[in-house]
Structures are given as structure tokens and as C-alpha cells.
Design a protein that fits this description.
heterodimer, A: 556 residues, alpha/beta, Diaminopimelate Epimerase, Chain A, domain 1, TIM Barrel, 3 domains, 8-stranded parallel beta sheet, 18 helices, 24 strands, B: 315 residues, Rossmann fold, Hypothetical Protein Yjia, Chain: A,domain 2, 5-stranded antiparallel beta sheet, binds zinc ion
């Protein structure tokens, strides 16, 4: 007979409606045997009692249903974004809030590099340095006149480089490539806009490319997820259909006993903006799923329909953007999307569609409706990802069609002020990330961080959904607030539902996997504004314990 | 300098789904480009992460996928181009068939990295549906952007559309892309000289002759002018003449004997405002006659003024 371990806790919040709160959970073979009082758990037979979490609170492990392993780059190379970013080792790199701070951070990094290394940094967001002049090569020359420096901005569409790099790469006043920024006298100013210009920095560009598709990133991502109490994370730009040779490397890392979590991949069937033989891709996906393990699975496919709101590339219905340029474009056409959705839907393959603008949501819903008329797979749980501007009518449609929404609530804190002032307008911003509307309409929701875009961790997504407060103190749409319970549900069982894994994970319930987040307080008990300050001690995955490093020194 | 491999010419073919892009590519390959040509179908296939994915099949056609919007995935096309220019044997011409929703201007800027020379952006539109496409809520701006990015606009399938449709399409395109050359076609059959930037001397004849005819030809809405000169041309002055040409002069092609490089032909190619001067074959024992051909909208060409300007550039 297998061993049974009973864990006691000051409180166990189960998210299982029949049995919402407990103080003990019995685990056998990595699964949950019993949940209740210590006595109730003891009644299940021989056991040992483990009191390591006796003073802590146990929650179902958080589930990130829209993540990217790219966030590991922030741990592995220099992060210079505006907001503080927690790293894999438990430390936090402080945000860069001015050009002066950037220069001193870069000097610090530079002094630690070997002779041949180039300085690569990531995540700069000058939108948050209002009033400062644009960053140029002259600023970066202060850091080094000899070492190549390449700073990639948060948008991914722009880099700033120093003169040493331009000299080494032959970027001069005669460079004809569009996107090479030049000053009034015609000299290049260090700005390289869009990939063709960025690629002129050939060494830095190549190095960044190689790093960003390295499957080894998943290991670091797992550690970052662990620190945030996340037991199941996802890669929403899965490359297993396009780069199937990566599959083995992923399995090797994720299936290993020391990997702290589960991963679910949503794979691109074609590069965004291009087509493929989707029937063939659907068959390839079914074959791929045969390699799934309890720790690493291929959950479905990802379709990217439009761009981003802050980049003015998300496709909005009338009246479009509040101010600024409208660069919106669809990466597919309504006709093609219908054919694509059908190819996967009829084989019962789950579809996650990136829809930032409500026009993208609309054509995705049209396509799902069409597919459902042809093929009555009702439990598809296709997901509108991001769903930042989906309308009330669209949520009513989603409910009828069985479509879920994974809502990017972190935007409220990270870019909410910009959405109010620039992209959506002070009135319309109240209806963005419409969690209340979605739930009232009956749409299953989850929340996400798009890890790499914002730091992984559901305490923050919940905090945003519950409070809807921005850094300047604005409240964006009080009427769209949801309760802490609804937010915690979205971050656990709601996410599990979207992954088609709610029978296995997402709640602390007999028969499910023993996946827990161990924290110092229940988000249902603390002040609503304190939810994001809850401390994560670690996670349990299938009965294995993974501690989050505590009190590591903060800094760069 | 003379030992350096020549830049690879790049022709971008764009256009919405169903407009006839692939038909046009096939037509070009059939007609022959006179150069070793590689076709990149920017739509199907796998990510080209390393150079060995670019081995072409026997027809010289490779396929790869081009991301066009986000993060690290936006660069397979660059990866491909970089690996192509690093090859020992490289094609002389690369034709990129962009995807139906591609931002062709952005694709074109990929061809303006070192080692490549953009020869032109061709956008194919379907005569019958273009009006409808342009006013479509979802894809209208995509189609409009493809038209605005074009050096040459092919109004295709004129046989299937009514005369009114063709006329209306022509007006629409003229207003959206006033600097582009608009040609009408059936089955995307467009004279190659309109599409390719590379100019051979024999092409000049073809270019001129085809433009001289004024009925039944798809390009009768344009006029043409040519100039010949047996003395050496001052390059600086010649370039400033080109710069001063009216906007409605759409294309300039030529083979010129410059003072700065008297041993070789200099090949002139101007599409819109983009001027490329490249070194051609040595004159050897041939008579070093410079020859320039212009094509423009009716009224854009004033032979007397042009002759004076060009004559002033000769030494
Ligand atoms: Zn994402």
C-alpha cells in the first residue's frame, strides 16, 4: 500500500464548492486522497503527518493560462524595463525610471562583462519617461565607447545602440535600410526601428534571436512561476508544430523530477500573418499530443488575429482609437479564419485566439459559430485571449457559443493610465477587461500575465481585477470589479477549465493532483488592496515540494 | 570593391488573397528573367532558423514562413536573407511572394539591408473585387496599404471584369498610389520589363517599343521618351537631373557611360524616388553609347526640357 502524508495548514482554501475550507489534506501517489479536518483525513488509514505548512495557508496551485517562457530572458540577461521585475533567484530587479538611471544600470552591467561580450539589455519603455529627450547613441556612448551596446525596447519593434556597435556593423549616414534613425545632420542616432533595421546590428540581433528560442528558457521560467505560486504554466507561442525538433529538449527539462511545475503548450500552426495547410497541421497536432506527459502537454493551437492596443495595431471596431495613429491590421482574413477554425474544431482541437481589439474578437466568434453549425462539438472551450476590449454583446455571444475569455487584467496597472489618456479614452477604458460583464453573461473566465510582458503571478492579476486601480490612483471602471473569490476562481479552476484540465487540477478536491500554492494569507481574508502583497512560500506539484527562495537581496 | 559579390536584386509581389500573385510569379518565371532566380513563397512551411532550410527545389522555389508582427518571431525572413547572402553561390534575383495580408512596405524594407537591392514592389489587385475589398471593415486598410506600397500595380483579371469595373479600379489605384505604374492584365500577363529593375540593353528596346504603341497594349495610358548620347556623362550632374524629374515620371532605366567609371557600363534604374546605379559589363570594344528611357503619365514628359537637361549632363 502506498504512503499517505497528511499536511496540516492554518487554512486550506479548496475552491471546491462542496467543501470550501479545510485544515488538512491527505496526499497519496501525488494525488489528493482526502480534504477536511485532520481527523477526517486520518480516518483514511495509515499515514504520516507533515506539519511544515501548519502555520501557512494552502491554496490550489495557481494556473497561468497565458504565459511565455520568454520572461526567463529577464533573468538571464539585463532587464531595463520600467516596472520592478522578480527574477528566478527570488531577487527583484528594480525598474528603470529615467535615462540617468538607465545609464548607471548599464555601467554597472558593463563592468561585469568579459572582453568579448556585447551588452544586450531588454525591456526599455521610454513611454514612462515623459518629458525626457529620446534615448540616442550619445547616451549609450557614456556607458562604453568600445563595447557594442544593444538595448531592445519593450515593444520589440525598436532598439537603441551605441556608436561602437554602429562602427563595427557599418551603420553610417549612408545606410539606406528604412528604420535607421538619423539626426538633423544626417548622422545615425542609434535608433533602429523594426526588424530589418534592427538586423543591421547583426551580432547583437543574432545573439538575441538565439537566446529567445532556446528551449532552456523553460527551466528558468518554471522557477519564476514557482516563486509566484504557479503550479501549471503555459507557452502560448508554442513552436512544436513549426520547430518539432524542440519537443525532446522540452520534455527532458519539464518531465525531470526537479522541474517545479507543469507546462501546457498552445502551438502556432503557422507564423502570424501567413497561412498553412491547416488540415495537415491539425493532423500533426493530433500526432504531437501522443507525446504528452502529466507534466508537459500540448493543449491546443494558438491563432494570432491582431496586434496590441498600446502599439495601435489591435483591430478596433468603430470608433477606433482615442488618439494616436491607427496601424491596425488583421493577421488573417475573416474568410481564412473560418477555414482555419474549422480545420481544428472538427478534429476537437482547442483553439486559443489572440484578440486584443474587438474587431478581432468579432471575426473569431463568427468563425466559431460557423464551425459549430458544421460540427457540433459543444465542449470546445475555445478561448478569446487577452479580450481587452471585447464588448458586452460579444460576451453574451461567447456565453452562447461556449467560448471562454482569458482577460489581461494586468494592463489595468501597467498601462491603464495610458489606455485612459491615449488609446481608449477616459470613458471607454471603464469597459476594458470587462470581467464583471463576462461573468454576468455566463462566460468562463481566467486572468493572465502574458509572462514576459508582465511578471508571472496571479496575486497581481487578481489584485487588478478586484481593485482596478492604476499607478496614478485612477479607478478604471468600478462597475467591472469582481470579488476576490471570483478572481481566485479565475486564477485556479477557471484557468484549469480553459486548459480542459479542470478534472485534474485547479481545486483541492479528492482525486485531483496534489498541486498547491503555499502562502502566508488567504486572498479571501486580507484587505482587497493587500492581495498582491501576499507572500508565496512555495508550491507543491504532484506531492513534490518546491520552495520559493525568500529574502534574496534586491538589486540588478 | 570590384571583387565583391553583387547585391541580390529583390522583387516583392504582394496582393490580397485571390488577386493572382502566384499566377504573376509563374508568368515571370515562364517569361524568363535573364538571371538566376530564386522564388520565396512567404507563406507556407517551416521557420528558417538555419541556412540549410533554404535549399531550393528544382524549380528554384523555396518556401518559408514570415512572421510579421510580434517579438522574436518577426524575423524568419531576415534569418533567411542573411543566410542567403552568406552563401557561396547566390541567385541574382530573389522574387518574394508575400502573404495575402502582408504589409508589403515592411517586407520591402527587408530587401534594403546590405547585400540586397530592392528592384520594386508589385501589388496585384483583382479588377472585379478591389472596390469591395477596399471598403471592407476588416481588411480594407490591409489592401489599401498594399496598394500604397506599390511601385507597379497590376489590375488583373480584366477579362472577367466589366469595362466599368476596370475603369473604376484604375481610378481608385491612381488616387491611392499616384506615383505607381498601373498596368492592366489578363492572367497576370505583364511585360517583364515593367516589373524588373535590372536593365539589359536589349530590354531598353523592348521597354521603349512597348511603350510607343498606343492601342491595345495594357500600358497605353503612359508615355515614354528616350535619349542617347555618345560622349561621357558627368555622374553628379546626371544624378541631379534625375532628382529634378517631375513626380509623374514613373520609371527611369538606362545604360550610361559615366566619367567616374568609364570602363564599365553603369546601369540606371529608378522606381518612384528610389534610384539605383550599379556597375554593368565592361564596354570593351563596344561603342560606349549612353541611353536612357523614361516612362511617365501623359503630360509628364516634355521632350525639349528633358533633352536640354540631359545634354547638360554630358561632358
Ligand atoms: Zn502572449
Amino acid at each position: 500500500m502506498s504512503d499517505t502524508t497528511i499536511y496540516t495548514a492554518s487554512k486550506i482554501v479548496t475552491m471546491h464548492s462542496s467543501n470550501p475550507v479545510a485544515t488538512a489534506v491527505a496526499v497519496r501517489d501525488g494525488c489528493i486522497l482526502a480534504v477536511g479536518s485532520l481527523e477526517e483525513c486520518q480516518a483514511w488509514g495509515p499515514h504520516v503527518i507533515d506539519e511544515r505548512y501548519a502555520d501557512a495557508v494552502i491554496l490550489p496551485g495557481f494556473i497561468e493560462a497565458h504565459g511565455h517562457i520568454m520572461d526567463a530572458l529577464n533573468s538571464e540577461q539585463s532587464y531595463v524595463g520600467f516596472f520592478d521585475y522578480p527574477l528566478a533567484d527570488g531577487s527583484t530587479v528594480l525598474g528603470i525610471t529615467s535615462t540617468a538611471a538607465l545609464i548607471s544600470r548599464l555601467k554597472e552591467i558593463e563592468s561585469g562583462l568579459g572582453d568579448d561580450e556585447i551588452l544586450l539589455a531588454n525591456g526599455l519603455d521610454p513611454i514612462f519617461f515623459p518629458g525626457e529627450p529620446r534615448l540616442t547613441c550619445h547616451d549609450l556612448n557614456e556607458v562604453s565607447k568600445t563595447r557594442q551596446i544593444f538595448i531592445r525596447h519593450a515593444s520589440g519593434h525598436l532598439a537603441t545602440v551605441n556608436s561602437a556597435l554602429m562602427e563595427a556593423e557599418g551603420i553610417t549616414r549612408d545606410s539606406l535600410t528604412p528604420g535607421v534613425g538619423k539626426d538633423k545632420s544626417g548622422e545615425p542616432n542609434g535608433e533602429l526601428r523594426e526588424p530589418p533595421a534592427m538586423s543591421l546590428a547583426s551580432r547583437a540581433f543574432r545573439e538575441m534571436q538565439i537566446r529567445s528560442i532556446n528551449p532552456g528558457l523553460v527551466r528558468t521560467h518554471g522557477e519564476m512561476a514557482r516563486n509566484a505560486g504557479v503550479t501549471t504554466s503555459t507557452e502560448l507561442v508554442g513552436l512544436m508544430l513549426l520547430l518539432p525538433q524542440q519537443l525532446e529538449a522540452w520534455h527532458e527539462i519539464v518531465d525531470a523530477p526537479d522541474f517545479p511545475g507543469r507546462m501546457v503548450l498552445y502551438n502556432l500552426p503557422s507564423m502570424p500573418g501567413t497561412s498553412a495547410d491547416y488540415d495537415a497541421m491539425a493532423e500533426a497536432f493530433l500526432a504531437l499530443q501522443k507525446s504528452d506527459t502529466p507534466k508537459m502537454r500540448n493543449g491546443g493551437v494558438k491563432l494570432i488575429i491582431d496586434g496590441s492596443i498600446q502599439g495601435w495595431t489591435a483591430k478596433m471596431q468603430w470608433p477606433g482609437y482615442f488618439s494616436g495613429e491607427d496601424n491596425a491590421h488583421l493577421l488573417t482574413t475573416p474568410e481564412e479564419l473560418k477555414a482555419t477554425v474549422k480545420a481544428f474544431h472538427r478534429r476537437r482541437i482547442n483553439i486559443n485566439a489572440h484578440c486584443n481589439g474587438n474587431a478581432a474578437t468579432e471575426i473569431f466568434l463568427d468563425a466559431v459559430e460557423d464551425a459549430l453549425i458544421d460540427f457540433a462539438w459543444l465542449d470546445h472551450r475555445h478561448v478569446v485571449q487577452h479580450s481587452q476590449t471585447s464588448t458586452a454583446a460579444q460576451y453574451r455571444r461567447m456565453a452562447k457559443l461556449g467560448v471562454c475569455a482569458n482577460i489581461f487584467t494586468n494592463h489595468i496597472w501597467y498601462w491603464g493610465d495610458q489606455h485612459s489618456e491615449i488609446t481608449m479614452g477616459p470613458d471607454r477604458v471603464r469597459g476594458m477587461w470587462a470581467c464583471r460583464t463576462a461573468l454576468d453573461a455566463g462566460v468562463p473566465i481566467s486572468l493572465h500575465t502574458d509572462s514576459g510582458v508582465t511578471p508571472i503571478g496571479h496575486l497581481m492579476t487578481m489584485w487588478c481585477a478586484v481593485n482596478r486601480v492604476t499607478p496614478t490612483g485612477r479607478v478604471l471602471g468600478e462597475a467591472e470589479r469582481i470579488t476576490p473569490y471570483e478572481a481566485l476562481y479565475a486564477a485556479t479552476l477557471g484557468a484549469a477549465y480553459q486548459l480542459h484540465l479542470d478534472h485534474e487540477i485547479g481545486s483541492i478536491e479528492t482525486g485531483k493532483r496534489a498541486d498547491f500554492a503555499v502562502v502566508d494569507a488567504s486572498p479571501l481574508d486580507v484587505d482587497r488592496l493587500a492581495i498582491r502583497d501576499i507572500l508565496v512560500f512555495g508550491i507543491v506539484v504532484g506531492g513534490e515540494h518546491f520552495e520559493a527562495p525568500q529574502n534574496a537581496e534586491s538589486g540588478s | 570593391m570590384s571583387e565583391e559579390p553583387r547585391d541580390i536584386g529583390v522583387l516583392i509581389i504582394g496582393g490580397y488573397l485571390g488577386s493572382g500573385k502566384t499566377t504573376l510569379v509563374n508568368h515571370i518565371l515562364h517569361s524568363g528573367t535573364g538571371r538566376e532566380t530564386l522564388v520565396l513563397v512567404n507563406d507556407f512551411g517551416e521557420i528558417a532558423i538555419d541556412g540549410d532550410l533554404i535549399e531550393a527545389d528544382s524549380d528554384g522555389v523555396v518556401t518559408l514562413v514570415n512572421g510579421c508582427s510580434c517579438c522574436a518571431l518577426s524575423t524568419p525572413l531576415i534569418e533567411f536573407l542573411v543566410s542567403l547572402r552568406e552563401r557561396a553561390t547566390r541567385p541574382q534575383l530573389l522574387i518574394i511572394e508575400a502573404s495575402g495580408v502582408a504589409n508589403t512596405a515592411l517586407v520591402a524594407s527587408h530587401a534594403m539591408i546590405p547585400g540586397f537591392r530592392l528592384e520594386g514592389v508589385v501589388t496585384v489587385v483583382d479588377a472585379e473585387t478591389i472596390g469591395e475589398r477596399l471598403s471592407d471593415d476588416y481588411v480594407g486598410n490591409t489592401v489599401q496599404r498594399q496598394i500604397e506600397a506599390a511601385d507597379v500595380l497590376v489590375i488583373n483579371k480584366t477579362d472577367l471584369a466589366g469595362a466599368v469595373d476596370v475603369e473604376r479600379a484604375s481610378e481608385l489605384l491612381g488616387s491611392l498610389a499616384p506615383g505607381a505604374l498601373v498596368v492592366e492584365a489578363v492572367n497576370a500577363e505583364v511585360p517583364i520589363v515593367f516589373l524588373l529593375g535590372e536593365t539589359l540593353e536589349s530590354d531598353l528596346d523592348l521597354f521603349e517599343v512597348r511603350n510607343a504603341s498606343d492601342s491595345g497594349e495594357p500600358h497605353a495610358k503612359h508615355e515614354t521618351w528616350s535619349w542617347e548620347c555618345d560622349t561621357v556623362i558627368n555622374r553628379t550632374r546626371f544624378e541631379s537631373v534625375l532628382e529634378s524629374l517631375p513626380d509623374r515620371v514613373l520609371r527611369v532605366k538606362g545604360v550610361v557611360n559615366f566619367d567616374a567609371s568609364p570602363l564599365h557600363r553603369s546601369i540606371i534604374q529608378r522606381v518612384g524616388s528610389r534610384l539605383a546605379i550599379t556597375q554593368g559589363a565592361a564596354w570593351g570594344s563596344d561603342q560606349a553609347t549612353s541611353r536612357v528611357v523614361l516612362i511617365g503619365y501623359p503630360g509628364s514628359i516634355n521632350p525639349k526640357v528633358l533633352a536640354e537637361a540631359f545634354n547638360a549632363a554630358s561632358i
